[in-house]
Design goal:
- By secondary structure, the chain is of the alpha/beta class.
- Helix content is 42%, strand content 15%.
- It is built from 8 helices and 9 strands.
- Helix 1 packs across helix 8, helix 3 runs parallel beside helix 4 and helix 4 packs parallel to helix 5.
- It is globular, with a radius of gyration of 18 Å.
- The site of 2-hydroxyethylsulfonic acid has 6 residues, from loops.
Amino acid sequence: MKKVKLSLKQEIVCITGATAGFGKATAEACAKEGAKLIVCGRRSERLTALTRVLSKHTDVHALTLDVRDKKAIHAALENLPKPFRNITALVNNAGLALGIKPAHQASLEQWEQMVDTNIKGLMYMTHAILPGMVKRGRGYILNIGSMAANYPYPGGNAYGGTKAFVKQFSLNLRADLLGTPVRVTCIEPGLAETEFSLVRLGDKKQAAEIYKGTEPLVAKDVAEAVLFCLTRPPHVNINTMEIMPVCQAFSPLAINRNVK
Ligand code: NDP
Ligand code: 8X3
């Protein structure tokens, strides 16, 4: 029986979207387990504050990075300080939903930003980092998808579409990586209270309404799931993990009862 891997002390974990929500909580959880961290996001002042706190536990390198910027990603990764170069785990978490309007009223610019961030940004990071993992015979790609990939809902249009990509891309990576020790997981959270709804709706009051009367997941719940996956023994691959709060479940299909 192989030894169970409980520590992250030998890991170099790169987390996108570490300035808020799941990404920040994941950085905190991984730091406590002793992983070296590369934390990425656009808001550099938040990265600086996070780095200051986490540096008490471990070595942290902050990258002010927009995942939509392919050139910036390559430049940042090529110029990583030596101790951070051999990334062992990539947590592709950066992402967003914008708007909740039906498709025929939605903003094309918002659809494009979701595709550019949730799909293309995740591809750019993966494409830049995965070959090194395969070459070194060690690595983990952990993608944050969403239950929106699995259950359509009104207004989910392009956002759900981007997360369906994340799921299928993750599974297809597994197919390609067979024969290597590199692992891939797609974690699919449901209702979770972070800055997500504020970003989506652009209004604090409307965002608060989403969580009214519920007990949603919190960022730490998802961070703990990430940690669970990363600390499985090397022969175990969790393909997908769908997580909902107890207050969320399935509904019957919608039916239009005004057919004339
Ligand atoms: P938050 O809004 O709290 O955090 C989103 C993070 O993504 C921020 O750190 C933000 O950093 C980063 N980000 C957004 N756009 C970019 C970009 N172009 N380049 C780099 N970083 C970017 O939301 P969550 O923590 O909830 O969301 C994290 C992930 O989880 C997303 O992929 C989201 O789709 C997914 N998810 C969220 C759920 C929820 O209900 N909350 C449920 C299921 C999935 P910055 O602005 O500094 O760049
Ligand atoms: C986030 C969950 O329900 O807003 O991915 O799509 S939901």
